[in-house]
Amino acid sequence: MKIGIIGTGNMGRILAEALLDSGAVEEGSLMAVNRTLAKAEALKKVYPGIHVAEKAAEVAHFADIIFLCVKPLESRGVLMEIASFLAEEKCLVSITSPIRTDQLETTADCSVIRMIPSITNRALAGVTLVTYGEKCSSDWKTKLGELIRKISEPIEIEQQYVRVASDIVSCGPAFFSYLLQEFVLAAVNETNIDEERATNMASGMLIGMGELLRKGHYTLPALQEKVCVKGGITGEGIKVLENGLGDMFRDLFRATHAKFKEDLEHVEKQYRS
Fold this sequence. Notes:
By secondary structure, the chain is α/β, with parallel strands linked by helices. The chain has two domains: 3-157, Rossmann fold, CATH 3.40.50.720; 166-252, ProC C-terminal domain-like fold (Orthogonal Bundle), CATH 1.10.3730. It contains eleven helices and eight strands. It has helices at residues 10-21, 37-46, 56-62, 72-82, 101-105, 138-149, 162-191, 195-214, 220-227, 233-245, 248-272, and strands at 3-6, 30-33, 51-52, 65-68, 91-94, 111-116, 127-132, 153-156. Strands 3-2-1-4-5-6-7-8 form an eight-stranded mixed β-sheet, sandwiched between helices. Helix 7 (162-191) runs antiparallel to helix 8. The chain is elongated. The two termini are 34 Å apart. The relative contact order is 0.09. The model has no long low-confidence stretch (mean pLDDT 95). Its EC number is 1.5.1.2. Catalyzes the reduction of 1-pyrroline-5-carboxylate (PCA) to L-proline. NADP(+) binds at residues 6-11. Keywords: Amino-acid biosynthesis, Cytoplasm, NADP, Oxidoreductase, Proline biosynthesis.
């Protein structure tokens, strides 16, 4: 199966790297293109066997499955450019959350899927969100599922939950890396522990906690209960968190949903025109 990547920015490159490193696709079966050609060429320096195109249409012509990894407001223009190459037997996969599959299907005659990856896929881990278009064939559902399982766990998501699921799966690593960084800096400022050592400790803790959850040893509440000894030090720290967090996470989801609504309106205008 030939793979096409249109857009090798952050997520497009991560997707290409994950697919190649996992062995899901061989280098000679992948073609990439980017508006700034140097970014695609940088990927080729790491994976010399891949093909680099100058135009998106070349990728659409070459590939069986085309991953559209461009910004939401750029997608319509690219889609119009490649539409004539999207034959019925092919599959178009968009990785941007504001664009619905039914919008893509107004232009693409092939199977259409929306897939929302995560930076965790670079470690061949985490979750990838999937929404299938109405016209998506069962064959392409199976093929994409097999690809995704090489780099992550696929979870099918309904339209009304796309934003909150994306916040958890795709934006979550940024949110929690920020919290972890603040945790480390507070430790450094309060105790003068070396920042590098504290970062290594915190990173190891987070990875270990992830393994406890992945292997099913504890749920989140059970983990807290096991670590918190009645009247102990951890409990005092939990009290601070309980008093200090307030509505912070609810405000976070409100902010991301408000921006998402804005993006939806802009995309809707493009696909109506």
